[in-house]
Amino acid sequence: xxxxxxxxxxxxxxxxxxxxxxxxxxxxxxxxxxxxxxxxxxxxxxxxxxxxxxxxxxxxxxxxxxxxxxxxxxxxxxxxxxxxxxxxxxxxxxxxxxxxxxxxxxxxxxxxxxxxxxxxxxxxxxxxxxxxxxxxxxxxxxxxxxxxxxxxxxxxxxxxxxxxxxxxxxxxxxxxxxxxxxxxxxxxxxxxxxxxxxxxxxxxxxxxxxxxxxxxxxxxxxxxxxxxxxxxxxxxxxxxxxxxxxxxxxxxxxxxxxxxxxxxxxxx
Length: 268
What we know:
This protein has helices at 12-23, 38-45, 76-85, 95-99, 103-111, 125-131, 154-158, 177-183, 189-197, 247-261, and strands at residues 3-8, 28-34, 66-69, 89-92, 114-116, 136-145, 170-176, 204-210, 217-225, 229-236. By secondary structure, the protein is of the alpha/beta class. It has two domains: 3-120 and 248-261, Rossmann fold (3-Layer(aba) Sandwich), CATH 3.40.50; 125-244, Dihydrodipicolinate Reductase, domain 2 (2-Layer Sandwich), CATH 3.30.360.10. A hairpin with a 3-residue loop joins strand 9 (217-225) and strand 10 (229-236). Helix 3 packs parallel to helix 5 and helix 8 packs antiparallel against helix 9 (189-197). It is globular, with a radius of gyration of 18 Å.
């Protein structure tokens, strides 16, 4: 069977995923996309080998078995609720928003839908998920981003924190993954993914640093568990189109999609 895939959002991530699907991935077919700028998306579609319709967010489920959310966190519910209510699968990148809309999991359960959260720009989620089958005492993450990658975050605006002229690293947040996801919805979906894989958003802690020295989005996770103690660090190259996200995120979505239909699946 071929899995029909719709892409919600046609920005830095959505375009890459859609392009790979158009080029051909075994068992996967691009069925539809949505975009804020419909005319621009339709123009881009003209260059695809197999152009697909540009549809409203809420109607993507009608054209696909799985909807990949590559859109702003604020519209997660608009696209996910009807899809899950009709037994579709949804791949969620704005998993920070999922923390405040966790009833969607129960909706998926009732109607035979499913929510996938790819690793995105983080590493080690397999190890964290495995350790969570035992006892984890602490999970801590330290995120460092170039100041421009954090500019405009609600937490910075609400607390009048200016990162535009930093000459040295500045810690701009320290707290739980839940609060980080609310305060930095476009920046630290990795914290939400880490929390979902491990001990939850209220026990997972995170520091966020605006660092004028770094040129890559850097995440370090430190885990203390009865099965293992480990620390992992990744330095992601920011997307040229959107510095708030890394290039690895789109590739993670593609890898996760391929894993759904591949006869060989590697990793927990």
